[in-house]
Write a structure and sequence with these properties.
Elements (H helix, E strand, L loop, with lengths): L3 E3 L3 E6 L2 E4 L4 E4 L2 E2 L4 H12 L7 H8 L7 H15 L9 E4 L3 E4 L4 E5 L3 E3 L25 H13 L2 E5 L6 H14 L3 E6 L9 H8 L9 H9 L4 E6 L5 H14 L3 E7 L8 E5 L13 H4 L3 H14 L9 H10 L4 H8 L7 H7 L3 H4 L14 H10 L3 H10 L8 H8 L7 H9 L4 E3 L6 E3 L2 H13 L3 H16 L2 H8 L1 H8 L1 H12 L6 H17 L3 H15 L7 H11 L1 H4 L9 H14 L2 H17 L3 H18 L2 H18 L2 H15 L5 H7 L3 H16 L2 H18 L2 H19 L2 H15 L5 H17 L3 H17 L6 H14 L3 H18 L5 H14 L3 H18 L2 H15 L4 H12 L9 H12 L3
């Protein structure tokens, strides 16, 4: 007896030699599928459905792109593509007409056909009698985000007889398989769909296949009988959900393929069938935007967001994504790993909660995502059900391994898995490979080193299982201990490889965070946590994660100081970390000076020369930030003595750099340049990551900051600018935020402003703000306010500029960062003086000069003397004005600061020009003639103009 295939009737629309089946979204020509894009097909369906009716461009866009803002040009591109696929216009036959000013119209003659019959007898000898569609589930909703994949699989099945779509539960394997099956059916090919999900007994797989094909059971060798029945018939057979009967499904597939040469077989499973000739496609999550900071238009380019919007529209009776909600929707899709089922279940909650509430509720995703379609299989009605299905059929050993892997947060290596999740002497390698094969674990070999990672959804599920088994503490302790041991001595490794490379290779950061969260929890082990914290400090600082580092260090010290006999070395390292706020230009934390003094005291007690050097350097930085030039030099000398005593060449070079900076602060320009150039020549051009870990900045970059400032003061403005721009480029390439911010705040912005290049100063200031807004670098950000204030003053917005400068100076004083206090005060005083507020300006200048005399900060004292001279001049106190300006010229000359000497000379010459024109001209010409570069700078242009006025 011939088998009967049950096939519903389908409407087809015929025009020319084309057949369009809208329900199946298939276009045929001469019985063969026509490859056409999804949007182009939507346009064709819309035009044919309203044939002879002109559809406006807006109407077509609204129908084809209902939730997306699309330009008219996109519609024209798809119309052009569609016409090409249809051969529109060939032989003078027009199918789609463009009605100028109105839109488009389908003008070909269309005939309605019925494809398939309700009950068709099939002769085993006649393949042509096969129905177009066998027993198969209907597509309940439009498939989103998989059109290209479905088309590729249809093509692959023309070339490969067995294709298996592999992926974890909820990824959408069945949906993709149905999409492929419907494409085949719509093209006139027979399809059989076998749902194995409800088949609990492997012995019943053959019966399920026969039943799906409408074949009666007539013998004990049922597969042979099925093979004989379909031997001469082209057929696509879909075996859906094979994982729990994988061995039998593989055997059935192999047997049927050997018996029926025209058979194509598509399987879906959590793991590959591993049969001969199998083509495996691993189904990936729906694509997501790389960042949550997206507009609606940008977000809707990605399938995960498209699916969310489509399903939300169904739930809410219409939903349009806007720019305000796009970041929230993107975040939800990311937290659900782009898993189709999870996204569908999430949108199902939108009738009872807002988007924001839904995003927040995903911390308990397995409780929230529990409302799938009532008619769906149980495992597709909740997210937990989908994963339970896969988890329940794992062998016990693999279930245990998956639970333990939940302790990892981010990528991990096979070695980490073995040491953390291994059970005694038994390795975990086979278990890892099996979990990857069964789509429960992701593997990445692109980096050259094999790494594994659990999707966040799977990790949350495994963590629940771990806690339910009352095993969490044991495996989390092993995880924390592993990363404690992994980081021990890692600073030396970072000096060779760099922290970013190490982070990428082993997923350190996420796992350190997870380990520390557990260590300082109620059930954790703080003793492990404090050691891990101390060892992680170099990583945090090299990655510029300052806020996170300080919070972790404070938590570790809070526990450590309560213990009766704390490890002095760990205490020393933690105090050193806590000392970084005053080095790092960070407010909101207590001063780090006391922490560094504690560090130095402990280091001296235990004889640790390394941390003695770090502490002396930090205490030097503190004096620098306070503007205490003489005290800073004293610490610089102590550091140099320690480096000499320790015979440490690297520390000797760093001490030389530190002394050069102190010399510059004191106003000794030429010795500073000599010291820093000697240091740079010996230090070399390659970054020394170990020095960055110890002293937090790139030492070559910091030295070049000193050199740039000193070169400008000496009168070498062009060389100073080259040092600045090269340094910015180097630190940008190195991706070290702290060093880059240091270059911008301490050299680049100053040099640009001193040159009078306001556009360049504006670019540098914007860059400084950008790189100091995301971390606890608020003092450097305040420097940006001061630079912005000066820019506004110079561009004529005096009131706004003075306001920024005043507030910035107050903030810097409160934070005790007054290293450049006199420089900023000088700009404010000069502005106030020019605006006629001479008394306030004079008070500011007098206070700055008094402070520089007390502290020894001499580098900008000539400029303050010049401004005081200008103030006296405005008050008609000419003798005092001349004395102050002459003092400025003489002090600048003694310092070797040609730049300040020129400024002071210009002021003096302008005052004296009327009384002694020739003497004034000669004085200015003598200073001007000593410059060899920088003639496009503001001061030199002013000097040249004044000489011209004086006839020089």
């Amino acid at each position: 007896m011939a088998p009967t295939f049950n096939a519903p009737a389908h409407e087809a629309l015929a025009f020319g030699d084309f057949q369009l089946v809208p329900a199946e979204r298939v276009l045929l020509r001469g019985g063969r599928p026509v490859k056409v894009g999804s949007r182009s097909l939507d346009i064709l369906i819309a035009l044919v459905a309203r044939r002879s009716e002109v559809l406006s461009k807006d109407a077509l866009i609204a129908e084809v792109w209902p939730d997306t803002l699309v330009e008219e040009s996109a519609l024209r591109v798809h119309i052009s593509t569609l016409r090409k696929a249809l051969g529109d216009g060939e032989g003078g036959v027009r199918l789609i007409a463009n009605v100028p000013g109105r839109g488009y119209c389908f003008v070909a003659q269309v005939t309605e056909l019925t494809v398939g019959t309700a009950s068709v007898e099939v002769s085993t000898a006649s393949a042509s009698a096969m129905p177009l569609l066998a027993k198969m589930p209907a597509l309940v909703a439009k498939i989103v985000g998989r059109d290209e994949l479905i088309a590729d699989l249809v093509q692959t099945l023309q070339e490969q007889r067995l294709v298996t779509v592999v992926g974890p539960g909820g990824m959408g394997k069945t949906t993709v398989a149905l999409g492929v099956a419907h494409r085949f059916a719509a093209s006139g090919q027979a399809v059989g769909f076998v749902d194995l999900a409800s088949v609990a007994d492997p012995d019943l797989v053959a019966s399920a296949v026969a039943s799906a094909l409408g074949l009666p059971v007539r013998s004990s060798d049922l597969i042979q009988e099925v093979g004989a029945a379909i031997r001469a018939r082209p057929l696509l057979l879909v075996l859906d959900s094979c994982e729990h009967v994988i061995d039998t499904a593989a055997a059935v597939a192999e047997t049927l393929l050997s018996l029926a040469p025209d058979l194509r077989l598509l399987a879906t499973s959590r793991e590959a069938l591993r049969t001969e000739g199998e083509w495996v496609h691993r189904l990936q999550p729906l694509a997501l935007p790389a960042s949550d900071a997206v507009t609606a238009e940008e977000a809707l380019r990605y399938p995960a967001v498209q699916l969310f919007v489509s399903r939300a529209s169904s739930v809410l009776g219409g939903y349009k994504l806007d720019d305000a909600h796009a970041p929230v929707v993107t975040e939800i899709c990311r937290r659900l790993d782009g898993i189709a089922l999870a996204i569908e279940l999430a949108t199902g909650r939108l009738d009872s909660m807002s988007l924001q509430a839904l995003a927040k509720s995903l911390e308990n995703r397995f409780q929230v995502l529990t409302r799938g379609r009532r008619t769906a299989l149980a495992r597709h009605q909740t997210l937990r059900g989908a994963i339970d299905w896969s988890f329940s059929i794992l062998p016990e050993g693999e279930q245990a391994l998956l639970r333990r892997l939940a302790v990892f947060n981010g990528p991990f290596t096979p070695d980490a898995a073995d040491k953390v999740a291994g059970d005694g002497d038994q390795g975990v390698e086979d278990g890892l490979l099996n979990l990857v094969a069964k789509s429960m674990l992701n593997a990445d070999v692109d980096s050259g080193e094999r790494r594994y990672r659990l999707l966040e959804t799977m990790r949350a599920y495994a963590a629940e299982k771990l806690e339910a088994a009352d095993e969490g503490a044991e495996w989390r302790r092993r995880h924390a201990a592993f990363y404690r041991d992994r980081l021990a001595g890692a600073e030396a490794e970072w000096s060779l490889r760099g922290p970013a490379d190490l982070l990428d290779a082993t997923g350190l950061l996420g796992n350190i965070r997870a380990a520390l969260d557990w260590c300082f929890s109620d059930e954790g082990d703080p003793a492990v946590g404090v050691v891990l914290t101390a060892d992680a400090v170099p990583l945090w600082f090299q990655l510029s994660l300052v806020d996170e580092c300080l919070a972790r260090v404070q938590a570790a010290l809070a526990w450590l100081e309560t213990t009766p006999d704390p490890d002095p070395r760990v205490r020393m390292r933690l105090y050193a970390s806590l000392g970084f706020p005053q080095m790092r230009a960070i407010t909101g934390f207590p001063s780090g000076v006391e922490a560094w003094r504690s560090t130095l005291e402990i280091a001296e007690a235990i004889g640790d020369l390394d941390y003695q050097a770090r502490a002396l350097w930090a205490l030097w930085i503190d004096r620098v930030n306070e503007g205490e030039a003489r005290e800073a030099m004293a610490f610089a000398n102590r550091l140099a003595e320690l480096a000499e005593a320790a015979a440490n060449p690297t520390d000797q070079l760093i001490a030389r750099r530190v002394r050069a900076w102190s010399l510059l602060m004191l106003g000794e320009i030429e010795p500073a340049i000599t010291g820093i150039t000697t240091m740079l020549k010996a230090y070399g051009s390659n970054p020394r990551r170990s020095d960055m870990a110890r002293f937090q900045y790139d030492q070559r970059s910091t030295a070049r900051i000193t050199l740039a400032r000193a070169l400008w003061l000496r009168g070498d403005a062009d060389q100073a600018l080259r040092e600045v721009t090269d340094n910015i480029a180097a630190m940008t390439a190195a991706d070290h935020t702290l060093s880059l911010a240091h270059v911008l705040s301490d050299a680049a912005c100053f040099v640009a402003l001193w040159r009078g290049d306001l556009d360049l100063a504006e670019r540098f200031t914007a860059l400084l703000r950008q790189h100091t807004s995301a971390q606890a670098l608020d003092v450097w950000h305040t420097y940006g306010d001061c630079f912005e204030g000066e820019l506004r003053i110079r561009r004529g917005d005096t009131a706004a500029g003075q306001k920024l400068l005043r507030s910035g100076i107050v903030e810097l004083e409160a934070a005790r960062f007054i290293c450049y206090h006199n420089a900023f005060q000088g700009v404010l005083a000069d502005s106030l003086m020019r605006g006629g507020e001479t008394h306030e300006a004079a008070a500011i200048v007098d206070a700055a000069l008094h402070r520089s005399e007390r502290t020894g900060e001499g580098w900008c004292r000539p400029e303050m003397l010049r401004i005081r001279g200008e103030l006296f001049l405005r008050l008609d106190r000419h003798d005092e004005a001349k004395a102050s300006m002459v003092a400025a010229v003489d002090l600048a000359s003694s310092h070797g600061s040609l730049a300040w000497e020129l400024r002071a000379t210009i002021s003096l010459v302008r005052m004296q020009a009327a009384a002694d024109r020739d003497g004034a001209r000669g004085r200015l010409a003598a200073v001007f003639g000593r410059f060899k570069e920088g003639f496009d700078t503001e001061d030199l242009i002013a000097a040249a103009s004044l000489l011209a006025e004086l006839g020089g």
